[in-house]
Amino acid sequence: MKVIIADPLPLSAAELLRAEGWTVDARAGRSAAELQADLGAADGLIVRSATQVDADLIAAAPRLRVVARAGTGVDNIDLDAASRRGILVLNAPGANSISVAEHACALMLALARSVPRADASMKDGRWEKKTLHGAELRGKCLGLLGLGRIGREVARRAQAFEMRIVAHDPYISAQIAGDLDVELVTLDALCEQADYISLHLPSTAGTRGLFDSARLARCKRGVRIINTARGDLIDEGGLADAISSGHVAGAGLDVFDTEPPAVATLTHLPEVVATPHIAASTKEAQELVGLETATCVREYLRSGVVRNAVNFPSVSAEEFKRLQPYVSLAERLGSFLAQLTEDRIECVGIRYYGDLAHRNHDMLVGAVLVGLFRAVLSSTVTLVNARSIAQQRGLEIIESHSTRPRNFTSLISVKLHTSSGEHWAEGAVFEPQEPRLVLLDGVEVETPLDGALIVIRNSDQPGVIGEVGTILGRHRVNIATFALGRGAEGAVGVVSVETGSGSSQGVGAELLDEIRRIPAVRQAAIVQL
Ligand code: NAD
To answer: Does 151 contact ligand 1 (Cβ within 6 A)?
Structure first.
């Protein structure tokens, strides 16, 4: 057996594979041509983020059975090309979670006791015993935003400091939070209660700039903010102002909007403790990533055991082709509903009608879950791992199929049961292979599930369409289609808008706010598919 390690990895990873009597060629920095030549006889390839595993490279490796990414993101690997060849792609998510969690705690302690300032003044020859007065963490409230792999580890550690912990994470069940002794609250409640807020959520269209001036103003006076997640979650100018005004007492930052920060406005503030994106940079995290990756490769090549797979749906190529349009529909329905709800999703109900009742439901459930999770998780969610991710997060899945005839040959119905109610969408595939929404919250409304959609719920009265149209026109946003439906509870409108550079300037928060201010409108949201 031959394994190529093409990027720098701790020696222990290669040793683990050599112990099997395998040939391991571990050298970083080869040219693409060199790597192609070396891959001619390789069974496995391990990379970090530097090596581009593209279709050409895969084509040059006739024996290759597994590509492993020592880390989380697999953007540098052509998953489709690998899947077409039957090559397993795997990764090692979460191997650095403890390191990041410990760093978040380090920042929290550094803020509470002004450790960097005290150290700097000592180095300056001063003895500022009186001015550097701290506060205990004991008894304070820590608000965790995101209770995924890292958030959970921070919770465990903060409990040792006797802090009270609340968390906001709409995609985690109350039971999982309860098991961690963490109270799930709304984002507003978290901001009102927390003395420390620590961010552990991914950067997505929905979370970018989450901590802007308005949100910071809603936080408790004297709050301290810790960010080891992604810089763009915070509006840095807003944070600098909130610190200068005294509303925010301090910030511990490992990540920045631009890295390194273009302007040092924030990092120069005495209330800010800053580190250069080093939360995951520990010897242990590097070791663990390498060992975990090598172990998964060994298990697969030695005994066919699949762990941490990110590709590879287990159906025949023929069935996959038949299901493909419905996989796309299911994913879009999941993503559509996920973007319409800010509440905690407790259960997903998926029902198949018509021909689909007899097909491979595993892939369709996987696709709905991929749609639900892709926008909210930092790791790669695929048809292979979506179900186990749902299980880890305590999300209940109820599947059913119905033989009741509907207007379509096949139809998928998805219902999200959330902490505050239900969201329900149904879709069908229209010729030629176009996924369409056909029903929303019980109201018939038909529109392509594609591009940017503004979803409006309003009381059924004249004039609403006109007002919406006027607002969109004023913002120079082109309407592609305007679908309407009427039900007992009111009307539903889905406006498909062109957000390309040519005809419109896109849909911003200001435009949505204007639509929300129309008296008949109860809800307006933008969904990007
Ligand atoms: P994860 O996917 O395990 O957890 C993210 C959590 O955020 C999930 O539970 C998800 O449900 C939740 N979430 C998503 N949208 C949310 C929202 N709008 N409000 C509240 N919660 C929301 O990810 P993780 O491995 O714990 O990573 C967390 C963050 O840390 C990510 O941003 C990741 O990029 C970052 N990270 C930073 C470093 C570093 O070196 N500083 C290293 C690793 C990870």
So the answer is: yes
